[in-house]
Amino acid sequence: MKQIFVSSVQKEFGRERAAIKRMVESDPILKPHFKTFVFEIDAPAADKTTQQVYLKEIEKSDIYLVLIGDKYGYCNESGLSPTEQEFDRAT
Question: For the purposes of burial, counting CB atoms within 10 Å of the CB of 40, is it exposed (0-12), middle (13-18) or buried (19 or more)?
Answer without folding.
Answer: exposed
